[in-house]
Amino acid sequence: MTDPLARYNAKRDFAKTAEPAGTLAPGHVPSTGSGQASFIVQKHDATRLHWDFRLEIDGVLKSWAVTRGPSLDPAEKRLAVRTEDHPLSYASFEGTIPKGEYGGGTVMLWDRGTWSPIVGKSAKDLDKGHLHFVLDGERMKGEWLLIRLKGRPKEKRENWLLRKIDDADAGGTDSLVDEALTSVATGRTMVEIEEGKPALSSPSKGRGTKAQARRGPARRNPKGLPAFREPQLCTLVDAVPAGAAWLHEIKYDGYRALVAVANGKAKVFTRKGNDWTDRFLAVATAAAALPGSALIDGEIVSFKDGKPDFSTLKDAIGAGGAMTMFAFDLIEQDGEDLSALPLVTRKERLRALLGEDGEALRFSEHVVGSGEPLFHQMCAEGLEGVVSKLADAPYRSGRSKAWTKTKCVQRQEFAIVGWQPSEKRRGFASLLLATCDGGAWTYRGKVGTGFDAATIEDVAARLAPLARDKATVKAPRALVRGARWVEPELVAEVAYGEVTPDGILRHASFVALRADKPAREVATERAVPPPPAPDLPTVSSADRLIFPDSTVTKGDLAAYYAAVAGIMLPWTGGRPVSLVRCPQGRARACFFQKHDAGSFGPHVHQVPIPEKDGSTENYLWVDDAAGLVACVQMGSIEFHGWGARNDALETPDRMVFDLDPDEGLGFAETKKAAEHLKEQLAELGLVSFPLLSGGKGVHVVVPLTPRAEWPAVKDFASRFAQALSAAEPDRFVAQAAKAKRQGRIFIDWLRNQRGSTAIMPYSARARAGAPVAAPVSWTELRTLDTATRWSVTDADDLLARAGSRALAGWGIADQVLPDL
């Protein structure tokens, strides 16, 4: 029998390399069937950076070198060159292969997990040149394909293509390789592995589109778990609210819950404040792993046939089955009450806190505007409906019209007030239902379908000790003849087709019992018309052309900012801003304004900030669409923001490197420069994101967990820019003097000091054509030929893009500055 590892051993001198010698694992059972086996991916900086993809088959690791790394984009087919089989012991190898040896360079354990062929296939399909399989790794998940290309004459190695199948784990970018920068085993970057630095005590797990590159030390809350607070509730409406002021989420079929987290512990509360941690233990365990302290709002569900199903959740609670919490709001974090912040800001902080979705804890995605299409999609897929929320609204306990729900199927809770016997089956024929309106019980009809035998037996047993002789509720005698009455303590979730004019349910079907709401609080829900869009400040001279080389008016600009407020406020809201004001339009005099004594009106706020000379100045800030429009009314076009928020002014939450090309350079050179910065930052373990400036250049944005103070961030940015300039002086310059920029790109790091600002995502620019600063992915950037791709006339396109795969997780990473 030929030794499958002979080629591996022949290529290596094990006296010089720390790689394991190639021996077959004793007693290993070959993995050629349909069961699970292991897989790993190793990032390998050899002659050329690549990712080694390895599948356990027949007692060895079948291996491919993927030159650009795996992509989440199903449209991307990545070349995967077949290499020699490796021993199973190689699956734990991480370190440096000496230069001059085969494969010399740094090796990182970049991903690991299990794999299995899809149902009906096996690993033997590899010999046929086509392998369809499922990965369950820390970074790579879902269905993938390996396809062998037809060989060419004199070709020494097999060339294959690795491609992601379009499923729930797919994406639209290169976020896997762009954002997952540390080892899943040791938490180290490539530079740290090369330098032989020790493993981190708590390595960051693999991240995909919502990267978590390098965590700082765990944050502790000496006050312990946040206290329960009454959740915000939705108003039932008969149509989805229209307009860009609203964001829309899927309405999940489950239990509403608040989760309190602190110091490695978690507690799960029902919407009435009951401690149900023991019933939702999987959710509590997942939440306990989050850093710092938090109070999170969400819905806990279980799935049946890929859809949330309340009955399945009830079974999961009793049997310890699988369940998932879709988290949609962050009320407190690290001792800070976030309830006054706009919803979009709270959600972005929640997204950053949660990181990559897990089995038991996931971020609830949303779309801004376009609620009606989402509603029709949910109904077509058999889901409950849509929840709509004002994007800039605070969190307020109790029911309000700032949160609404639109249902595909009529469903609500009813108190069980009695039952009617059955002549054909044990238990009961139907349950009698009521609501408590104004303190009095009102009969709402009966439900006799939706039960299986086990449910009838369970409900009947629960009703028996609640029996009473007197009628619980007034009802037409003919409808309740023979009824057995009970104390109204049990609550049933019931679906129904319609309600008669006298309030009786028709076509009712039992869903499940609910234990998270007292029967006395079950009231009739009546759908009301959706609330109108919030009033915005009046814009005078709305027809004035403020971009004379286009048709864009002051009114158009105000409408643009009102439309994109939901995607702009997460970046602009709650931080000091400087405005570029052009009261007579961009063709006339424009100026910066950062201070205000209240002349902008009530929608634009002031935050007092100490200056160097000991004085205090009021800086401008906004937190809603009305604030953005009020600034436009005062002649503002551009919004530039600090690198820190009002609540943490001395600890920046981002760095920005503005790549400003000399007049003679084209956009192609700027794109390549941005890509180079991304790669250099990645070597240090920092994830970055590109922002089209809406001018000539590109901003490379580096999110930061706000720990380091301004002097440290400024020092890092300065030394990083100067190091790049020193390494390639003909390409880069780190000094602001224009005389030194000729033929080069200025790396403007000066934005990263206290009081400096940078253009905000989605801000308009006071430039020809009314362009806007637009977030893009690194994949998209490679295809663009201008930094002014989008303008204020493209609000609909920008809103659609903001919820797309391409921008999923843009600007989000929990990471701290490394040592330089």
Automatic annotation (TrEMBL):
Residues 212-222 have a biased composition (Basic residues). Its EC number is 6.5.1.1. Its cofactor is Mn(2+). Residues 194-225 are annotated as: Disordered. GO terms for biological process: DNA recombination; DNA repair. PANTHER family: BIFUNCTIONAL NON-HOMOLOGOUS END JOINING PROTEIN LIGD. GO terms for molecular function: ATP binding; DNA binding; DNA ligase (ATP) activity; DNA-directed DNA polymerase activity; exonuclease activity; metal ion binding. It comes from Sphingomonas rubra. It comes from the Bacteria. NCBIfam families: LigD_PE_dom, ligD_pol, NHEJ_ligase_lig, NHEJ_ligase_prk, PRK05972.1. The keyword Nucleotide-binding applies. The keyword Hydrolase applies. Residues 325-407 form the ATP-dependent DNA ligase family profile domain. It catalyses: ATP + (deoxyribonucleotide)n-3'-hydroxyl + 5'-phospho-(deoxyribonucleotide)m = (deoxyribonucleotide)n+m + AMP + diphosphate. Pfam families: DNA_ligase_A_C, DNA_ligase_A_M, LigD_N, LigD_Prim-Pol. This is DNA ligase (ATP). Keywords: ATP-binding, DNA damage, DNA recombination, DNA repair, DNA-binding, DNA-directed DNA polymerase, Exonuclease, Hydrolase, Ligase, Manganese, Metal-binding, Multifunctional enzyme, Nuclease, Nucleotide-binding, Nucleotidyltransferase, Transferase.
